[in-house]
Write a structure and sequence with these properties.
Length: 116
């Protein structure tokens, strides 16, 4: 009896695996990232260029921040890692990574520019 239960466990796990990874109906298959670019003194930066790099294809998308320093990228694959960085008049932020292990649909990553 004990042996039958031990043999049955892997079969049950294999049978239930597709259900565990199945996407819920109506749930988006993409994710988004947004945030605010600030200067070294924490003021929002208008006109900063935020670059989003797909680490799989090396494709880069850019966004120019609005008056409140906000940026937004949408329709991102949840299966890919992305690198984010901001540049403005010679100042740059550090590179930040949005990893595929992050399961959130809407991610907030704020970027701070270093002093020149």
């Amino acid at each position: 009896m004990k042996r039958a239960i031990i043999l049955l466990i892997p079969v049950l796990l294999l049978a239930l695996a597709p259900a565990a990874f199945a996407q819920k109906k109506g749930e988006p298959a993409t994710r988004s990232v947004q945030g605010v670019v600030t200067s070294a003194d924490d003021a929002p930066v208008t006109g900063a260029v935020v670059q989003l790099e797909n680490t799989k294809t090396l494709q880069i998308r850019s966004y120019i921040t609005k008056e409140d320093g906000a940026y937004f990228f949408y329709e991102l694959s949840p299966e890919v890692d992305y690198k984010l960085k901001a540049d403005f008049q010679g100042a740059s932020s550090g590179s930040r990574t949005l990893t595929s292990f992050d399961s959130r649909k809407k991610v907030v990553i704020n970027l701070k520019l270093a002093k020149k």
